[in-house]
Amino acid sequence: MNDDFYIGYLPKSPAGLAKNVKRIVLALLLIGLAAAAEFIYDQAPFAASKFEYGVYREYTGVIEEWPYPILRTEHSSFLLVAEGKHGFAAAVRGLQGKGVRLKASLIERGEDRMLEVVSGSLQETRTNTQAEGIRQIGLGTVHLRGEIVDSKCYLGVMNPGNGKVHRDCAVRCISGGAPPAFVARDASGEIRVLLLVGSDGRALNREVLSFVAEPMFITGELVRSGSNLILKAEPVRFRRESGIKSATFCIR
Hints:
This protein is α+β, with helices and mostly antiparallel strands. It folds into two domains: 49-124, CATH 2.40.50; 136-240, CATH 2.40.50. Helices cover 19% and strands 33% of the residues. It contains four helices and 13 strands. It has helices at 15-42, 89-92, 151-157, 167-175; strands spanning 49-51, 57-64, 70-72, 77-81, 99-109, 112-117, 123-124, 136-150, 180-185, 191-197, 215-225, 228-232, 239-240. The strands form two sheets. Strands 2-3-4-6-5 form a five-stranded mixed beta barrel. It has a five-stranded mixed beta barrel with strand order 8-9-10-12-11. A hairpin with a 5-residue loop joins strand 9 (180-185) and strand 10 (191-197). The longest helix has 28 residues, at 15-42. The chain starts with 14 loop residues before the first helix and ends in a 12-residue tail after the last strand.
């Protein structure tokens, strides 16, 4: 007779069988814990970004309409977007170079800053703050590999704000007017956020929707406008790439 044979209606299983089951359960538990630890270790850390949702501050400065709405203050510059998945171009139309006051929540990633403007808070200041246009500096032709993202989510509203998992959200934000950006690495290996416009300086929104969240190779002209880097390129020349390494670019 086999003493290790277990009959279900008995209160206990045989000692030898119970010992084997315990060993198997313990081994499976350890394997599960090891797999979980491996997944956690391989998980990329979240970017050092933030969105001060529900925190509103007052900002004053000068509006720049090109290439996308920007508020230039005494010490910094901020891309402007509306609440939700909407851009802010319509709200600042005709305010180029004029002083304004507004309330907004800060969106920030590294040195790149954006404001989500509270609806109805934009006011032109009585002081006529007509400012000289920001000098644009051409940095030459660049050949870059990177990814097209919607700048609002990438700079802090969502984390992560790029990649395939974020594609649907990015498409809705860009089609709603959020500035599209091209994310690439410079010669030092640092990630740079380049505002993406056409070769003629036009805003690119719906023209780039089919390229969002894919590895892209883009040739274009790099321009510095104040603290912003702008990549002027034509969507018809964009190339989907998966294996090619891009030339890095220098910031001067």
